[in-house]
Amino acid sequence: MKIGIIGAMPEEIAKYLPHLEGKQEKKWKIFTFYTGKFHGHDAVIVMSGVGKVFSAMICQYLLDTYHVDTVIFTGVGGSLNKTLEIGDVVVSVDSVHHDFDAQPLGFKRGQISYTDYRYFKAEDKLLQLALQTKITGHKIIKGRIVTGDQFFTQADKQSHAYLTEELQGDCIEMEGASVAQVCTVNEVPHVIIRTVSDKADGTAVSDYNSFKHIVAENSFLVCETIVKNL
């Protein structure tokens, strides 16, 4: 099995690289792809950059060029679930574009116009393996990832109540659903792992900057558990 692992930022892939046996690097445009063995499996690890366009580009390139069988997106996100604290982990049951809105045309929020695509379901086997991870001092839950090209704070949550009331999101971030959409269309299993780096509240920006380096470790532990048990 060949596994593709994507993170948006340097902190989200840094932990993986020392564990990549026989590591090789290959450049494509502004991106660097790291190949080697990760816990006995062929793996390709790459930093996509932030946002839905970059992450979708990189995911499709992974599938077309490296022919990965499974995609794991790993990194940090903001909590929409009141039970989650910084360092807790959300593993995707599914994901949705919260900023795709063609309701005036008769489509539901998050539904890709003129298609049946709305909620992109993660691979259940990957989800179940992820939930086996033991993280000291933190919890891991399954939930819904909501994705959009915005960084949300408390004021945004108050004006965008649909994130939880309608879409029932547990974690908000900027890449997951785009990766999930690419994988779904290509019929490749995927899962999104997000560790809470902020609570999308009044301290979101300072929390994010303070904790993004630290909490990426928990995402790594979850991903490692998945790969070890595949």
Describe the structure.
By secondary structure, the chain is α/β, with parallel strands linked by helices. It has one domain (2-229): 3-Layer(aba) Sandwich (Rossmann fold), CATH 3.40.50.1580. It contains seven helices and ten strands. Strands 5-9-8-6-10 form a five-stranded mixed barrel. The termini are close together.
Essential attributes:
230 residues; alpha/beta; single chain; 7 helices; 10 strands; Rossmann fold
Question: How far is the first residue's CA from the last residue's CA?
Answer: 9 Å
Number of strands: 10
Q: Could you say which structural class the secondary elements and strand pairing correspond to?
A: alpha/beta
CATH evolutionary superfamily: Nucleoside phosphorylase domain
Count of helical regions: 7
The CATH topology = Rossmann fold
Question: Which segments are poorly predicted (pLDDT under 50) over 5 or more consecutive residues?
Answer: none
The proportion of strand residues reads 25-35%
The whole-angstrom Rg is 16 Å
CATH architecture designation: 3-Layer(aba) Sandwich
What is the succession of H and E elements?
Answer: EHEEEHEEEHEHHEHEH
Number of domains: 1
The portion of residues assigned to helices is 25-40%
Biggest sheet: strands side by side, in what order? 5-9-8-6-10
Shape: globular
How would you characterize the largest beta sheet? 5 strands, mixed, barrel
CATH class: Alpha Beta
Mean pLDDT: 92
